[in-house]
Amino acid sequence: MTILHAGTVLTPEERLARRKLIIRDTISLLTLFLITGVILVLTWLLHRSFEDHREELGNRWRHRGEIALQQNRPQEAVEALRSALAYVPNRQTEIDLAMALAQAGRTIEATSYFNTLWEAAPGDAIINLQLARLAVKAGNEPVAVRHYQAAIDGTWQGNGFDRRREVRLELARYYISRHEPDRARTQLLIAASNAPDDPSIKLGIAALLEKANDLPNALGVYRSLAALKPQPLGALAGAGRTAFNLGMYRVAADYLSRLMAHSAQLPAEQKNAARAMLDTSSRILLLYPAYDQPARIRAQRLLNARNIAHQRLTSCATDHSVTPQIAALITRWGQVPARLTVQQLEQKPDLEQTILQLVYDTETTTAQTCGAPSGDDALLLRIAQNPAAVEQD
Known about the structure:
0% strand
């Protein structure tokens, strides 16, 4: 082996051999790099193809699960969404799977799944809403209310304003189902104050206010909608119905008359109910001795009411045993002049209130003692329940 030292002169043959060696080593190294690059590219392409195929399979299974959920086939949705998650882990798919478990009646699994999701995102409104619904099914009111409130205050994707109102109304319906009208009323009044100018939304809120036994606020919403042009028939019907149930028969007659002008557009059941309320309201307004009426008409109506109530008391005392309450009424009637004319009553305004109160007390007491009245007695009893509201505007 020849060792080259500094200053050594190579022969042409040696320089040529050395050059060939360098070129060969360079080519070998470049070939190695090229092979490595090709392997890397092939590996990347294979990996990318696998990932694309896996994503495609995941999307396909997720789509199947979503369709199954929409078509109310939760068990199929569960299997499809589990397969989708095996290919492509995705938070929305996990939420859909938990919802499918809930729809399938697998409440414990669904609750566990949603609780796991909630721990990662306690402010997620959708997750809180689903946990609230599961708590409703389980009969756990404190947990349900807590998650409903968290859903209202939480983060929504898309139109959060509308979704929060929907959740608030769902919470109100839950309170109504639990016979907690005061708590329902609070939610409904907040929803009403924030509701957009959409008659369908406000009609729904007014209907829930009725169910929560908040008739005055329900009437207020209905009346505001009935002032629109064109008038929504649902608003006219709601205003007439709530005014009637509040004993505001003048208001009821007004809205029910307007509703009946469109009777051809009403279902038979609604039309019959509206007609009955209108007839009752109209008759009550004819019976009621309003203070703003001329003195003669008022006196005539008072005497008519006196005769109706006195006959009711007589029949009650004849057909049933005389209770202390009935005996007390008989005594009071004995203190009222047995014969009165319209002219005499016009001259004795102080006697009007005495007779009117006696009529109301008679109808109320006889209803408790002798059963529900009929005819004009039933109408006088309605007046007696809230006289000041009859002609209230």
